[in-house]
Design goal:
This protein has 369 residues and is an alpha/beta fold. It contains 13 helices and 10 strands. A 10-stranded mixed β-sheet has the order 7-6-5-4-3-2-1-8-9-10. Strand 1, helix 1 and strand 2 form a beta-alpha-beta unit.
């Protein structure tokens, strides 16, 4: 299934300490309705040419709720108008900071079929919030109010927690705080990704992230039924016990022909980070179909990466099927080449070998090429 990372706006009402988007030069604030209509025309073309496939639209940003409820209602109207035969094969998801979520969004979200909401949160003061001082009290009040509203109206919601240096001394406290929020969609722990010198005080090493997860794993493993789905623990268990492959895009090794990022001006790239860095630019949705964008020859280097890594840095690694060398963009940041594994592979290896296998009693078998 193809996934459109849809950034109809890159504006944001928060100034989160580790976010890059708010510092990005924005040539166009929000996508005009004429461009929005073209998006649905392109999706309809794509689905008609591929009658066996579905299509996922992930509303991202910036903060997509800044578009307002009327914009989402217009999106539903344009989908009805431009995708009359294919609309049943289009799914919508949304990633938001929740601070602008009100009852006015419920109808347009319901019409679009948005039933799951993704967010992120940090109880650490002055990490998430508006203004130069990062007003976390304002952010937290609005976040909690919105999650209650979402739950009352039947929306499932989960969150990403970004592990920073400030998190390392409070691992257990953070775990209990987040798992007591009554999340229906669970929580995913990810390492912070820092790409400039001014915020290195927030950065963590792969080993530190591995140890952070290692401190939490016994809490989750002993009381799995009490806590919601916690990643990466739940996914690793599923992969071992049931042969599942609950892998995110960074670990799947399959992003080459399945993802496209569209900016407010219609510019197409591979993902949010590739857009920010000026990499893997695929033209503009005004000039190219989604089929052309998803078959751009630049994508071949991502597909070839799997073969290269299995002959070089990942040869003989028994964790290949749950890692695939990690995110190609992480490799580019360090090596200016996609043909390397991510440094975060070492975090996964260290966590599994030092913590997950000994505590769970489960073991990854060697990968056979």
């Amino acid at each position: 299934m193809a996934t459109l990372i849809f950034k109809a706006t890159e504006k944001c009402n928060s100034n989160c300490a580790y976010c890059d988007v708010i510092h990005k030069e924005q040539k166009i604030a929000s996508m005009p309705l004429e461009m929005l209509e073209l998006i649905f025309i392109r999706i309809d073309e794509f689905l008609k040419a591929r009658p066996e496939e579905d299509f996922n639209v992930t509303w991202h940003g910036g903060e997509p709720l800044l578009l307002g409820p009327d914009y989402f209602l217009k999106a539903w109207e344009l989908q009805e108008k431009r995708c009359p035969e294919t609309k049943s094969r289009i799914s919508h998801q949304l990633q938001s900071n929740f601070t602008l979520f009100t009852k006015e969004f419920i109808e347009p979200f319901t019409r679009l079929g948005i039933s799951q909401l993704g967010s992120s949160f940090d109880p650490e003061p002055h990490m998430r919030g508006p203004g130069p001082e990062i007003d976390s009290e304002w952010y937290n009040r609005r976040f909690m109010k919105a999650t209650g509203l979402a739950a009352r109206h039947g929306f499932s919601w989960g969150m990403i927690y970004v592990v920073t240096r400030k998190s390392l001394a409070r691992a257990r406290e953070i775990f209990f705080f987040l798992t007591n929020l009554q999340l229906s969609g669970g929580v995913n722990f990810n390492p912070v990704l820092i790409y400039d010198e001014t915020r290195q005080h927030l950065a963590v090493t792969p080993e530190e992230f591995s140890d952070f997860l290692g401190e939490l794993l016994p809490l989750w493993w002993e009381h799995q039924t009490r806590y919601p789905i916690v990643q990466p623990f739940h996914g690793l268990k599923q992969n071992l016990r049931k042969g599942g492959r609950s892998l995110g895009c960074v670990d799947s090794g399959e992003c080459a022909y399945h993802h496209v990022n569209i900016s407010p001006a219609g510019a197409a790239s591979h993902c949010g980070r590739s857009s920010d860095w000026g990499l893997l630019k695929y033209g503009n949705i005004q000039d190219r179909s989604l089929e052309d964008i998803l078959r751009d020859e630049q994508r071949e280097q991502l597909l070839a990466r799997n073969e290269i890594l299995l002959r070089t840095e990942c040869e003989g690694c028994r964790f290949w099927t749950i890692c695939h060398g990690g995110c190609p963009l992480d490799a580019w940041w360090k090596h200016h080449s996609f043909a390397h594994k991510s440094e975060w592979c070492e975090a996964k290896r260290g966590f599994i070998e030092r913590y997950f296998e000994p505590i769970s009693g489960l073991k990854f078998e060697p990968y056979e090429q």
